[in-house]
Amino acid sequence: MSESSNVFFHMRNIVKSYALGDEEAVILKGVCLDIRRGEYLSVLGPSGSGKSTLMNIIGCLDKPTSGEYILNGSLIDDLTEQELARIRSREVGFIFQNSQMLPKLDAMKNVELPLIYAGVRPRERARRAEEMLVKVGLQERLHHKPNMLSGGQQQRVAIARALVTRPTLLLADEPTGALDQTTGAQIMGLFQELNDDGNTIIMITHDLKVARNARRMVNIIDGELSESEEATLS
Amino acid sequence: MKALWQRLLGGLTMFVESVRMSVANITQNRLRSFLTILGIMIGVTAVIALITTVSGVSTSISDSFTSMGAGTMSVAVTGNDLQAGLTGDNLEQITALSHVTGVIPGVAATVSVARGDAYESEISLAGKNPFYFSTTEAVARGRTLNPIDMDDAARVCLIDSDTVAEFFYGVDPIGQTLYINSQSFTVVGVLADVGQSITEMVSGSNAIIVPYTTALKLSGARLVTSVTVYVDGAAASQTVQTALENYLDALFSYEDDTYEITTMDSIQETMDSMLSMMSALLGGIASISLIVGGIGIMNMMLTSVTERTVEIGLKKAIGAEPAQIQIQFLIEAFLLSMIGGVIGVGLGIALSAVLCKAMGTTFTLSYGAIALGVGFSAAVGIVFGWSPARKASNLSPIDALRRM
C-alpha cells in the first residue's frame, strides 16, 4: 500500500502570511506534518510561535496562503466558507481552552449542538449526546447547565461535544489551560482513554508537562515545525 | 433519492432547531424583546385601527347616501334680477317633471324662541314641506306638516326633544303655544331623535321645523334658494338633471350662473376620494412607525450579533455553515417582528372596535387590514433582519474565538 493512497492527515509546505502594512508577516514558514490514524500528537510552542494559526488551519477555520493540506481525503484548499464548515462538521472535533459551553443550554443540548448543524434528527441526537456524556463520566449531570458544573465537568462536556459527531480528528487547544492540576490530570487521562479507543488527537499547548502526555510531540518555534527530540510516553 | 431525502430532513431539523433557539433567545430577554417589538406593535395597531375606522366611517357615509335615495340632487338657486329664487309654483312645476318623486325646499333661519320665562336665542329653524316627512321618519309624536299649512303659511311647528326639555318640562307640548321671533306658533309635533343624516352633519341639526312658506316669512325672504330634488332611482338621475337644467334655463332667461345642481353621486364620489386620500395619508404616517420599528429590530439584532460573537464563532467551529447562522438570526428577527405584528393586529382590532362604537359607525373586521399588518411586519422583520443576519454569518470564527 503506497503512502499517498492512504494519506489521512497530510500537510506539505504550509505557509500562512498576513499583510501588515507594507510588510508581510509570515506566521507559518513551510510546515510539513503527516499523521497516521489513531495517533496522539502534541504541538508544543510558546505564544507567538504560530501554534494558534496552525491550529486554525488544521481545524479548517482558516486557509493556508500556500501549501497542500489533505484531511481524510479532502483537499483543504480554496474551499468556500460553506465547504469548510461541512469539513469542520464532519471531520474535526474542537476542544477549547475554556470549554465554551453555551450558558443557556444544559449539558445535553450543548453536546447536541454539532449534530443540529449536521442535520441529525432529534431522537438520534439525544441518544448520541447521552452516549457521549456517559462516556466522559457525566451520566449524573445530563441536564445541568454550565453554571452548575465545575470547570473539569465543563471540559468533559466540551470533549463529549467534540466527539459526538464521530470526527476523524480531535483538535484540542490548551485543553487543561483553565483547569487545576488534578482536574487537568483527569482530563489527560480521558484523552489517553480516547486515544486507546482509536481516536486521533492533536493537542496544542505551551506546557511541556501537558505535551508529554501525547505519544508524539512536535515543537513549533517561529512558524517552523520540528519533531521533538524528547522521548514521549509510549 | 435517499440522499436528497436525508438532506431535506436534515434541513427541516435544522430549521426547527433554529426556530427553537430563536424562541429561547427572545424569551430569555423578555424585557428587551418587548421593547424591541414595541415599535412594530404600535405601528401595526395604528395601521389596522386607521384602516378599519376609516372604512367604517366610509361605509356608514355611503349607507346614509343610499338611504337618502340614489340620484337625489340638490339645487342652489341664485336666480336673476327679475327672480332671485324659486316660487311655490316653480317647486310644483319641478315636482311635475317626469321621474321626480318630490322636492324639499330648504329654508333655514336662526330665530329666538320664548315661552313663559324661558327664552333662547340662536335656535336653528328649518322650513320644510310635507314631502320632507315622507323621506324621513323624523316625527315621534303629533302630526306632520300638510299642504294646507304650506298654502296658509300656518304658524305651526314641530320641535326636537331638546327644545321640548327646554320649554315644556313636564308639560305635553302638543297643542301648546311657543313664541318664535315674538310670533305665536302652535306645536303640532315632536321630532324623533334619529341619527344625524348627511345633510344634518353638514348643516347642523334643526331644533324647529315649520312650513317653508312660514320660514320664508320669518327670514324675510320671498323665494326659495335651495331645493333638494328626489328622483325615482339612480338611472333617471341624468334625465332629470337635463330636464331640470332646461326648466331653470328657461326660467332665468338662459343667463349664466343662476343656479347650480349637485348630484348626490358627485358628492359621494368626492367624499369617497377624500376618505381614501385620508386613509392613504394616515396609513402612510402609520407606516413610518413600522419603519422606525424595523430600525429598532435591526438595532437590537446588531447588538445581539456583537454580544453573541463568541457563540457564533463557537457554532461555526463545531460545523455551523454561514447560511445556517444567517437563517437563525433571520428567523429571530422575523419572529420578533411577527410577534409585534400579531399583538399589534389584536390591539388594532380592539382599538378600532372601540373607536367604531364611540363614533357610532359599524365595525367590520377587515381581513385585508389584518393581512396587511401581518404581511408588513413579516416584511419588516426580513428586510431589517437581513443585514444583521448577514453580519453574523460573515463573522470569522477565528476572530470570534480569539475573544474567548
What is the subunit arrangement here?
A: heterodimer
Strand content of chain A: 25-35%
pLDDT averaged over residues of chain A:
86
| Strand segment tally of chain A | 10
Question: Distance between the terminal alpha carbons of chain A, to the nearest Å?
Answer: 26 Å
* Structural classification of chain B: alpha+beta
What name goes with the CATH superfamily of chain A? Answer: P-loop containing nucleotide triphosphate hydrolases
Largest sheet of chain A: 6 strands, mixed
Order of helices and strands of chain B: HHEHEEEHEHEHEEHEHEHEHHHHH
Q: Order of strands across the widest beta sheet of chain A?
A: 6-7-8-3-9-10
Q: Report strand order across the widest sheet of chain B.
A: 3-4-9-6-8-7
Order of H and E elements of chain A:
EEEHEEHEHHHEHEHEE
Total domains of chain A: 1
Strand content of chain B: 15-25%
Largest beta-sheet details of chain B: 6 strands, mixed, barrel
Instruction: Show unreliable segments of chain A.
Output: 1-5
Overall, the morphology of chain A is globular
Protein topology:
The complex is a heterodimer of chains A (about 230) and B (about 400).
Chain A: E1 9-20, E2 23-35, E3 40-44, H1 51-58, E4 66-71, E5 74-75, H2 81-91, E6 92-95, H3 107-117, H4 122-135, H5 151-163, E7 169-173, H6 181-196, E8 200-205, H7 208-211, E9 216-221, E10 224-227
Parallel strand pairs in A: 3-8, 3-9, 6-7, 7-8
Antiparallel strand pairs in A: 1-2, 1-4, 4-5, 9-10
Chain B: H1 2-28, H2 30-67, E1 73-77, H3 88-96, E2 100-105, E3 107-115, E4 118-128, H4 130-135, E5 139-142, H5 147-152, E6 156-159, H6 161-167, E7 177-180, E8 183-191, H7 198-203, E9 208-211, H8 212-219, E10 226-231, H9 237-251, E11 259-263, H10 264-307, H11 309-317, H12 322-359, H13 367-394, H14 397-402
Helix pairs in contact in B: 1-12, 2-10, 2-12, 2-13, 10-12, 10-13, 12-13
Give a written overview of the molecule.
The complex is a heterodimer of chains A (234) and B (404). Chain A has 234 residues and is an alpha/beta fold. Chain A has helices at residues 51-58, 81-91, 107-117, 122-135, 151-163, 181-196, 208-211; strands spanning 9-20, 23-35, 40-44, 66-71, 74-75, 92-95, 169-173, 200-205, 216-221, 224-227. Chain A has a six-stranded mixed sheet, with helices on both faces. In chain A, strand 9 (216-221) and strand 10 (224-227) form a beta hairpin. In chain A, helix 3 (107-117) runs parallel beside helix 5. The two termini of chain A are 26 Å apart. The model of chain A is unreliable at 1-5 (pLDDT under 50). With 404 residues, chain B is an alpha+beta fold. Chain B has two domains: 17-64 and 270-402, no CATH class; 69-263, no CATH class. Chain B contains 14 helices and eleven strands. In chain B, the strands form two sheets. In chain B, strands 3-4-9-6-8-7 form a six-stranded mixed β-barrel. In chain B, strands 2-10-1-11 form a four-stranded antiparallel sheet. In chain B, strand 7 (177-180) and strand 8 form a beta hairpin. The chains are: A alpha/beta (234), B alpha+beta (404). The interface between A and B is medium-sized, with 31 and 27 residues.
